[in-house]
Amino acid sequence: MGKIDKALSALSEMERGCVAAVPGYAASTRVSMLLTLLYVCLLLSVPLQDLQRLVWFASFPIVWASVTGVGYGCVLKRSLYVLPLILFVGIFNPLVDTAPAWTIGALTVSRGWVSFVSVALRGMLAVQAVLTLTAVCGFADVCRELRAAGVPSFLTTQLQLVYRYMSVLLEELLVMGRARTARGYGRASYPLRLWAAMAGQLFLRSVDRAERIHRAMLARGFDGTMPRYTSAERHGAHGAGAVVWCVCWVAVLCYLRFGAIICFTR
Amino acid sequence: MHMSDGLISTPVAAVAAVAAAALIGVAGAKVKKDTRPGLVSLTAVLGAFVFAAQMINFSIPGTGSSGHIIGGVLLSAFLGPWAAFLALSSVLIIQCLLFADGGLLALGCNIVNMAAMSCLIAYPLVFRPIVSRGASAARIMGASVLSCTLALELGACLVAVETKLSGVTALSTGTFLLLMAGIHLAIGVGEGVATGAVLAFVKRMRPALLVGAGAGEPRGRATGAIVGFALAALAIAGGLSLAASQDPDGLEWSVARVAGSAEVPASGAAAARAQKVQDATAAMPDYDNTFAGVAGASLVMLTVWGVCALLTHRRRAAAITEKE
Lengths: 266, 324
Description:
By secondary structure, chain A is mostly helical. Chain A has two domains: 1-137 and 238-266, no CATH class; 153-235, no CATH class.
């Protein structure tokens, strides 16, 4: 049940991260989303063999997560989740592409190793930018901006409802899991029959809960869309500071992608 | 099977995003027309259920390992394919935005690979035809195993194709496809058995939920539209990506058109002075250029992190004290 605890604490950290965000550095959610999208697009357009340029791209999540109080260490740790599939797909590159790319003294590094590291770095940096965005702006505000940007209301309503009930069902599962662990004599995973009963029970409880929720929503005038709200205190556009912040980052990111980056060699 | 941004190129991501957005649009229109009471809340809560159920691992006999469900076929059996597709897409979006499970630009790929393949292909083409002839426990189990295996295999093959088109892997297409398909065959069977077990449990406890699910949709028309759309999306994805991979990246092309070169060279007195400073301060002049660049840039990033952490440490501490 450690995974459930982790997921619950991740959700709770997310909420805390939003509160800890420093308003002086926070641009509006919409601008932050566009900046993140630009970052990911530019990041993915860097050729795989240009590892040096990719490393510079780390500056964006590092600075953004740090100055907004989210903390880069936390973002870095969570971005490690992307590694398993990347390692699985990329590990064959060093075996297949053995052409030399660099020489470090007597050691020769193949192109396969360079592309392998590049793939892992790209994946991690892209995820770090997204995690920082949601930590700084908050998931509810991201949904609100998606709605304002023209994403259909049925999708944003779904996202908000799933997000809200995710923690509720996780807590319910945690209770079921604790009860089972107390009687499970240290077994970590479940035999299929028991697992099916657990998942089935959770499913039935979810359906019952959905019926209660639906009745409560109807009683409060639900018409198929979630009401909009504004939280100007935390995520309003912060005037000139926000504009300077965004313009600077656009310039830096474009330079990192297309400019002649600094070399540490003669 | 969640693809991260590291595994795809921008053109492939763009094409998949368009396909996913179109499918979500169609799903939204279908769900709006659906008159089942409480479908919005049921879809959302069952989306959250799938997320929660993915946290419980079941033992895979004889291997010592464990697995969890993906939930596409399971959701489709209760909600119908389009509402299930919407629920699973919502879960994938939230997993991407909050849990680093899959990338932002890879979101379209993940929705097509996982949600579309299971809810819109495997469920209507395999699960529903088998179960519609009689929902015995054995039939449900067989339909679950077959449909989940098909969904996983299709998704795995798409991952291989998308990764190959993006130029990320050095493996040949055939080898990569075989590798992905082979591994996901076992996972698909496991997913199918688990899905069948849950469906059998619900059928035993509350049969009305299962029997009524997805019954209101016209089978032939929906299946034809889905297959047609999926094939069109695949054809467009493949065609556009192949064309894109032979040409320069769109951003490079645009900058080259404006500046005459894909890279903007540094010029002028300031650049010359910077060059002199750089010559004087180069930390690793005798090493390979690229390695030295990577090492230097990494060092700078660590320094930036350190400085940022130092600058913000006091403020964070003050915020925590204030909260307490």
